[in-house]
Structure formats: structure tokens, C-alpha cells
Amino acid sequence: MKKLLTLLLASTLILTACQAALPSPQPVTETNPTESAHNDKLTTLTVMTHDSFAVTKEVVEKFEAESGVKVNFVKGGDVGKALNTLILSSKAGTPPADVFYGVDNTFLSQALENELFEPYAAPALQEVDDALKLDPKSGALPIDYGDVCINYDKTYFKEHQLAVPTSLSELTDPKYKGLLAVENPATSSPGLAFLLATIGSMGQGNAMQWWEAMKLNDVVVVNDWETAYYTNFSASSGKGPQPMVVSYASSPAAEYIYADPKVAESPTASITADGTCWRQIEFAGIIRGTKNRAAAEKFLDFLLSLPFQEDMPMQMFVYPVIKDAKLPQDFIDQSQVPAVPATLSPEEIAKNRSSYIEAWTELMMK
To answer: Mean of the pLDDT values across residues 200-228?
Structure first.
């Protein structure tokens, strides 16, 4: 279960309403001073990522050998902090990286408003669904996506002869009293994503009325995904009291793939009815002012290439954006994809993110 925890931790974002400046980023892997003379001739490209970034070593090494680019990955912390660091340092003319991977659609507008990225119309963008392209200037290129949904414990609902809810409104029914654990949107990525899902599907006024009804129905609020999933969720290793939890639509696939001993099917599934999930899209871009523009373009082409796109599902349990990228069969069989996730425009999120969180906090935490 350790690997599952690492793969699914909500540290892809772990958002806060006010972000502090980030200390110096830490390398993902340390540079070996005894590397071959061949590597000394490569152009070194610094790529900042969020803490949950993962890629197979051999995939990167093949890119380096073919491109003449040596990639120096650095962890920038959660996305909010990393983004603030990049914006401030870029304005000062001292960006700590050439490329940033991991800004998502809840923070995209902040990057675009501050003109963090240089435009690059990567050829592979032709193979990406237009719905995932949120930057008309092609500064932020979509790389992957995933859905935040409510996961449920199959065994609990079967043993209690309880129907799985198929809408957000059903969750306010007293028969589901105290059965859902959610994360605080002020401190958690999936918590914020789920709050946005409720607002995107119902509108802010109706969403806050729904949350008030959920409070009366004893919804359980915790600070982070790890606590919600591993302490509160009844299907997790913690065997907690709640049979429903806000997590990811790919969590059931991870539960199945890493089950020990092996199981015939995932013990969990996701509620994916229209408007119940939030689609997170992650982007990468070339930091404005980089002195390694050509190498940065090669790296973005790599991120949109089949080797990287097909490596992602088992590394970070996200979906590739390239249409021809193949998914592992277990990933397909055990995951669910919502047909109509809730949406809000990046501009609306940028304008109202803080007020959404403040309104939720005032209602739910008092």
C-alpha cells in the first residue's frame, strides 16, 4: 500500500488560499560527478515539477540519448508554492528552471496572467483533444488529466443492502448520514477540486445550500487526502468508518493493481454520474526568459510523445492526452471515466477561488 499512497497522494496540488514563498527546490535525483564525458557534452535542462511527478528512468535516459539534452528534475513542492516561486523569480530575472510541469486548471490563469510561459505550438498538439487546450497562446501545453470523484467501498454497500448514490443531491438523504469523508478545500487538492465540482454543477448559491445540507447529514471533513483515504475510508488499509471518500477515479485501478494478495476485481469504484466529478488537467510550459529554448522545446515534445504518455498511467495514475497513447488493460478495466465532469472556466476560478474557499470555510468549519 506504500506504493499506492505515493502514487495517489494529493500532493499534486495541496492548495492553500495564501501561498508562502518556497525554499530552494530540491533535486529529484542528485547529479553524479563521475558521469561519463558524453553527458558533459549534453545541454542541461532544468525542469521543475510538483512532488508527485514520476517517470521511468529508462524512458528519460532514452530521451537524453536521442536529444542531446540532460534533464535535471527538481521538486518544487506543491503546485501553488512552486508556481509562486517561479512567478516571483521570473519577474526578478532569475528563474530557477527552464520548464515547469504540473500547473493544473485550478491555477492555470495565475500562470497565464503573469505571462510565465513562452508560447510553443508543439506539433503533437494536433493529437490532443481541443477540450484540454485551455491556453489559446499555447504557452501551457496539456500533458495529462485525471478525475476527482467520490470512491465507494463495494463490500459495505453490498453487505448493508444500500444503493450507491448516483447524484450529489442523493447524498443529503439521511440514509447516507455520516458515510462520506471529504477533504478541506483550503488545505487539499482533491478537496478544492470537489468543491469546484459542486459549484460547477449547481452554481455557487445552490452548492452552498448543498454543503449546508451535507453538514447536517454529518459529512466528515479532514485536512488531507492521506487521512481521508487511509484513516476514514472503510475500503482502505485503515478500515475506517466511512464507506465513501473523495479521491480519484483511478484509485480503484491502483487498489486492484497493487493488491497483495491479488484480487479478482477492485474493492472500490467511483461515482461518475454527470456533474459529480472534477477533471484536473495538468500542463507544462517553457519558462519565459530561458536560455535553453531549443532544449526546452525538445522536452515538451518528449512529454507529448508516446513513450512518456504511455509511461504516465502506471507512474502517476493519470490519463495521457495524446489520442493514440495506449493504456494498460488493468488500468482500463478497473477505472471509470465520467462522461460529463463539472466544469468552471480558468478565469472564473481565478476570480473566485479565494471567495469560494472562504464561503465554504465559514459554513463548514464554524
So the answer is: 96
Q: DSSP states of 168-194 as a string?
A: TGGGGSGGGTT-EEEE-TTT-HHHHHH
Rounded to 5 degrees, what are φ and ψ at 47? -120, 115
In 10 A of CB 99, how many CB atoms? 24
C-alpha cell at 69: 539534452
Q: Which residues pair with 166 in a beta bridge?
A: none
| Among the listed residues 291, 286, 295, the one whose alpha carbon sits nearest the alpha carbon of residue 43 | 295
Give the C-alpha separation, 79 to 52, whole Å. 10
Predicted model pTM: 0.82
DSSP annotation of 74 = E
Give the CATH class of 8-146+279-333.
Answer: alpha beta
pLDDT (tens digit per residue) in 31-68: 444 344 445 578 999 999 988 899 999 999 999 999 99
Per-residue pLDDT reduced to its tens digit, 231-262: 999 997 668 999 999 999 999 999 999 998 99
For 81, the enclosing helix (H) or strand (E) is helix 79-91
The reply to whether 8-146+279-333 and 147-278+336-364 are identical in fold is yes
Bridge partners (DSSP) of residue 144 are 282, 320
Q: How far is CA 5 from CA 93, 247, 254, 270, in A?
A: 37, 12, 9, 18
b/e per residue 147-158 (b: at least 16 CB within 10 A): bbbbbbbbebbe
* For the chain, percent of residues with pLDDT exceeding 70: 89
How many Å apart are CA 221 and CA 232, to the nearest integer?
A: 10
Distance (Å, whole) CA 47 – CA 33: 19
Rounded mean pLDDT, 335-363: 94
Enumerate the domain spans of the chain: 8-146+279-333, 147-278+336-364
Domain made up of 147-278+336-364: CATH architecture: 3-Layer(aba) Sandwich (3.40)
